[in-house]
Amino acid sequence: MTLHGGAAGTGTPPGFPGTSQFVAAGTVTPFDAEPTSFKATSPVREHQVVTLSFGGDPGDVQWLWLAATPIQQVLPKYQGALLTPPALATILMGVLPASGALDVPVVLPELGPGLEGLVAQLQSFVQRGSDWLLGPASSLVALDSSF
């Protein structure tokens, strides 16, 4: 099966169009929903700000899962893949404004005595009307302030 790349991005400078990919084996699961975006600034030191950036449709209710390890389980009902195991925390981040973009600054807390760093797994998910959609994931590298 050949998957055809998408249109070029519209940033400044503009992106390149996606390239076609041939899939020789495995399963391809197409999803109808418009994708969302998510990224976290990383690495970050304790007591410094990490910016969580979310994108999607205006009015999307944006949530975030925090987990210790990654997984991958495709869940077509939720238009994506679960990339974090049972979450250590589920956090309501807010509603996307008319721009469809939301940046949330968060001060990274103290890691604790003797802990030089850790990697946390973050995954966004969205309530869009009556639908729940899984979004992208990001690994957050947190470092002790001495580094």
Give me the number of helical elements. 0
Helix content: under 10%
Distance between the termini: 47 Å
Structural class: mainly beta
Name given to the CATH architecture = Single Sheet
Give the overall shape, derived from the CA principal axes: globular
Largest sheet: 5 strands, mixed
What attributes characterize this protein structure?
single chain, 147 residues, mainly beta, S-adenosyl-L-methionine-dependent methyltransferases, 5-stranded mixed β-sheet, 3-stranded antiparallel β-sheet, globular
Give an overview of the whole structure.
The protein has 147 residues and is an all-beta fold. It has one domain: S-adenosyl-L-methionine-dependent methyltransferases (Single Sheet), CATH 2.20.130.20. 0% of the residues lie in helices and 47% in strands. It is built from no helices and 12 strands. The strands form 4 sheets. It has a 5-stranded mixed β-sheet with strand order 4-12-11-6-9, with no helix packed on it. A 3-stranded antiparallel β-sheet has the order 3-5-10, with no helix packed on it. Strands 1-2 form a two-stranded antiparallel sheet. Strand 7 and strand 8 (80-82) form a beta hairpin.
Please write out the topology:
Layout: E1 2-3, E2 21-22, E3 37-40, E4 44-45, E5 49-55, E6 61-67, E7 73-75, E8 80-82, E9 89-95, E10 101-107, E11 117-128, E12 131-143
Parallel strand pairs: 4-12
Antiparallel strand pairs: 1-2, 3-5, 5-10, 6-9, 6-11, 7-8, 11-12
